[in-house]
Amino acid sequence: MSAYSFSAFRIAAAVLFLGVAPTLVAPALAQETKSKIKGLELSNDAPIQIESDKLEIKDPESKAIFTGNVKVVQGTTTLQAGSMVVFYKKGGGGAISSGNADIDRIEVKDKVFLQSGTQQATADIGVFNMTAQTLVLKGKQVVLSEGKNVFTGCQLDVQMNTGEAQLQACGGRVQIQLDPKSQKTN
């Protein structure tokens, strides 16, 4: 395993609901890539815009279901998926209507796409657990990219409160394509 590392990806979705967008720093090829991520404080005051073909609010079940071309935007961060279910903590206020509900977790599926500036991630499904402060992206192929730098695996786990991230290969190997021209010089 090489000691070569560089700033490769800001986990954009975290900013949507946590106000944090960490940076993944990964070593070269391995069956599993584990690294620390550095947090970047972003504004929690930026408005969140959500669009979908349909919204179903189920207050008794403490959830809101967005289906069809779901798009969530906050500042320079965009999340897109076929569907998104937002689960609220019991007694945390009315679902979407009050705007102050306490979110437990968010599940997205069907062509998940995250973008923040020039950085992108794609996956089949994603789970943002606000209570545990974790983000998990899974799929046949989870791809993280910034320009020509590309990380490919099948599962990305991010522990938001410790700044650790792990990209797994799920039986294969993690693949990394690095563009030497993208490395910042000091």
UniProtKB/TrEMBL annotation:
Pfam families, per database record: LptD_N
Record key words, sorted: Signal
Signal peptide positions (record): 1-30
All copies of domain Organic solvent tolerance-like N-terminal, residue ranges: 49-163
InterPro entries referenced in this protein's UniProt entry, alphabetically: LPS_export_LptA, OstA-like_N
Protein name: Lipopolysaccharide export system protein LptA
